């Protein structure tokens, strides 16, 4: 398993100054910048579109890890790719043909991710692993930050780690939702190699971001 990456979610940042927030969390030690895109239809919240992603792109050279919680998702893929996304992750439920959606993302020259909600079965990825660069396990129901980690997802992470290892493919296994310094060791031990940290990364304001990220890394380092 590769080294664990920390992907702070800007959903928990100060939206009044997103450019400054992205620069600050980058400088604090973020590996990826996680961007949650919500449409108020697929999930009960409304966040940002491709214009905001494009505006943020000059503020960091770190990979933009874009989680698309929109339906239908296919018509928006090109716009987010052109805006500067490095990885586009989609839900199987957000379109009729997951395989075709992943093909489109790859054709746009981007990394392709599949997102599994808490109730989404793991076997949905079985026949698309050849097109998948990342699997994102939602350990909360998508739509809002600051939710409590759903413990049943630990077993799902372990099952997916076994699938990835058996496939022999280089696929990142990311976890998003309620991840913090109190549970990240168990999440990583189950097989995750990328952690989305929203509230845990951005709490306290910019002066605390480096400490927030460092609070995760000692646990990460101890189980590598």
Describe this structure in words.
The protein has helices spanning 18-27, 50-56, 77-83, 98-107, 153-167, 184-190, 199-202, 209-223; strands at residues 5-8, 33-38, 64-69, 87-90, 111-116, 134-138, 172-176, 194-197. By secondary structure, it is of the alpha/beta class. Strand 7 (172-176), helix 6 and strand 8 (194-197) form a beta-alpha-beta unit. Helix 5 packs parallel to helix 6. The protein is globular.
Mean pLDDT: 94
- Report the major sheet: 8 strands, parallel
Strand content: 15-25%
Order of helices and strands: EHEHEHEHEEHEHEHH
Kindly state the number of beta strands.
8
Quaternary state of this entry equals single chain
Which terms summarize this structure?
33% helix, alpha/beta, single chain, eight-stranded parallel beta sheet, globular, 8 strands, 18% strand
Strand-helix topology:
Layout: E1 5-8, H1 18-27, E2 33-38, H2 50-56, E3 64-69, H3 77-83, E4 87-90, H4 98-107, E5 111-116, E6 134-138, H5 153-167, E7 172-176, H6 184-190, E8 194-197, H7 199-202, H8 209-223
Parallel strand pairs: 1-8, 2-3, 3-4, 4-5, 5-6, 6-7, 7-8
Helix pairs in contact: 2-3, 5-6, 6-8
Summarize the structure.
The chain contains 8 helices and 8 strands.
């Amino acid at each position: 398993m590769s080294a664990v990456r920390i992907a702070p979610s800007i959903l928990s940042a100060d939206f009044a100054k997103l450019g400054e927030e992205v620069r600050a969390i980058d400088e604090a030690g973020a590996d990826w910048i996680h961007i949650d895109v919500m449409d108020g239809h697929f999930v009960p919240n409304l966040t940002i579109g491709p214009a905001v992603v494009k505006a943020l792109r000059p503020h960091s050279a770190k990979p933009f890890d874009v989680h698309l919680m929109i339906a239908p998702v296919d018509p928006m893929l090109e716009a987010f790719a052109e805006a500067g996304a490095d990885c586009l992750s989609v839900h199987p439920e957000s379109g009729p043909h997951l395989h075709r959606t992943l093909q489109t993302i790859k054709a746009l020259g981007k990394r392709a991710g599949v997102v599994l909600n808490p109730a989404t079965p793991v076997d949905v990825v079985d026949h698309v692993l050849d097109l998948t660069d990342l699997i994102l396990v939602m350990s909360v129901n998508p739509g809002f930050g600051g939710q409590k980690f759903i413990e049943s997802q630990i077993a799902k992470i372990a099952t997916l780690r076994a699938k990835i290892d058996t496939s022999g493919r280089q696929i990142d296994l990311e976890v998003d939702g309620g991840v913090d310094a109190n549970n990240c060791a168990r999440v990583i031990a189950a097989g995750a190699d990328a952690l989305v940290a929203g509230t845990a990364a951005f709490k306290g304001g910019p002066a605390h971001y480096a400490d927030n990220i460092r609070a995760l890394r000692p646990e990460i380092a101890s189980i590598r």
